[in-house]
Structures are given as C-alpha cells and as structure tokens.
Amino acid sequence: AARSSGEAVREYLPTMGQIFLRRFQLVTQFRQALETGQVKVHYQPKVALPSRQVLGVEALVRWRHPEFGKLDPDEFVPAVEAAGLVDALTGFVMDQSLQRVRKWLDRGLRISAAVNLSVRSLDDATFPDRVAAALERHGVPPELLTLELTESGVMADPQRALPVLRALHALGVVLAVDDFGTGYSSLAYLRQLPVDEVKIDKSFVLGMGTDLGDHAVVRSIVELGHSLGLTVVAEGVEDDLARDQLTAMGCDVAQGYLISRPLSESRLEAWLQARTT
Ligand code: C2E
Ligand code: CA
Ligand code: CA
Ligand code: CA
C-alpha cells in the first residue's frame, strides 16, 4: 500500500507543478501579451426577437499564446483576476469595444457593445470614473455600452456592490446580470439593484428543447424579468427550436451559435456587411 501511494504522489506532484508554473507564466506575461497583440477581442452579435435586428455585440477576450496556443478566457481570466491585473484587461476590452462602436456610429449604425466585468471592479470606487473617461475619450453615448456582471458576483455581497452599481447606472450605461438562474438569488431581489437587463444562463437555454424543467425556468425568468421592467436576453441559442420557443415567450434578445459564433474584428465586419446591406 505504501508503495502504490508513493507512485500516486509521484504522478500527482509534477501535474500540480505544471499547473502552478503555467498560471505563474500567464500572469507574468499578461501585460506584455496585451501590448504585443497576443490578446484580442472577439465579438458575438445579439439580435432582437422576433425582428432579428442586430442590437449589439458581446466582447469576449481571446489569447493566442506563443507556447500554449489559443487560450479561452476560462483558462486565464481567473488567474488574471487573482493577480490583481483585471483592470488592465477590462480597460483593454472596453477601449477596443468602444472604438468599434464609434466606427459604427460614423457609418450610421447604432450597435452597442457589452463588456464583461470582474466582480472586483465593484469594490473599486474609482471604476465608474474610468468608464466615464473611456466613453468620453471615444465619443460614445453611455447607452451604447452594456456592462455584464455575473449573478453570483453581484449577489455574493449586494450591499457592497451597490455604490459602484449606482454610480455606473447614473452614467447611463446599461447594467446586465449575466448567467442568471445559476445562483440562488430571486428575481424579486434584483428589483433592489439598479440593473436593466438579465441574461438567462445558457445551460437553461441549451436544455429547454428537451427538458421541461429548463423550459419552465426560462419562461419564468422572461415573465418575471418583464414584470420588473427588465430587458431579457437569452444566450446559448443554438437552434431554430430554441429561437422559436423564446420568441413565443416574448424574450427580447437572442445570442448564440444560431445567430453567430464570436467573431474576430474583420469577420464581424463581413458578417455585418452581409446583414445590413
Ligand atoms: P459569458 O459571459 O457567459 O460568455 C458567454 C460564453 O458562451 C462565451 O464563452 C461564448 O463563446 C459562449 N457561447 C456563445 N454562444 C454559445 C452557444 O450558442 N452555445 C454554447 N455552448 N456556448 C456559447 P467564452 O468566450 O469562452 O467566455 C467564457 C467566459 O469568460 C465568459 O462567459 C465570461 O464570463 C468570461 N469572459 C470573456 N471575456 C471576458 C472579459 O473580457 N473580461 C472578463 N472579466 N471575463 C470575460
Ligand atoms: Ca457575458
Ligand atoms: Ca453568460
Ligand atoms: Ca459563463
């Protein structure tokens, strides 16, 4: 028994070491990756139901790492947050996104951008000023910027999040609660927060065609969301059935592979050209 546990330990330690080393490398290399163009923003369109008009895009970050290859945000955003570097990420994504929105405005298109925030930004009393400065710098009206916060992040300590949420709301930006339905909060509690939009978590939307429970969850979020005056967005819309069911429920906005995958800047432009001409 002693021998086999020794072998288990020998196999385990290098793996832990590798994970730790990789995390350490990612964190130490992150700022330089931002500056050298390894980190890029992709954009996923959001369309109105039932009209399918393009209302906005969600900015989703990607890192093409020279050694590790293409990294999804789930692989590096948590490490970046833990290392206290998330301001640099959010600032970068916000600047890139607002630059796009401004270019569209110059072409007569009103398309908003949604940026994912780290819950850590809600602890930072200076964050709203930086958002205001970015809007001003890019000449973008606040209603064309949406800030997405996860339900679990906001609800972990709503009282603590409230001052920054209020300041952001006062700027006139749109505040969205992301991954809704996965936490333990009630929609009624949301009423006490200055939010404008709920995004139904994709796990429910993906399941609604085959699972009556998921279907019921989606429908009740749409109904209660509307009764609170919120815009309801469904993410993870992958097929016609889901889109049709959401349309029948009165869901306002759809996002998902059915409409488009997240696209690079140039692919998004081509996609928009094909849509809007
Ligand atoms: P999220 O905000 O919930 O973003 C939606 C995720 O669902 C994205 O994954 C998107 O590619 C994926 N998705 C979109 N449509 C579909 C669909 O129809 N089916 C399925 N199965 N998936 C779909 P992604 O890009 O890997 O991002 C993962 C998470 O990383 C995001 O989840 C968000 O929480 C975080 N994230 C991404 N960009 C940023 C960022 O700039 N800052 C911060 N703080 N977090 C970010
Ligand atoms: Ca999001
Ligand atoms: Ca989400
Ligand atoms: Ca998510």
UniProtKB/TrEMBL annotation:
It comes from Actinokineospora guangxiensis. This is Bifunctional diguanylate cyclase/phosphodiesterase. Residues 23-276 form the EAL domain.
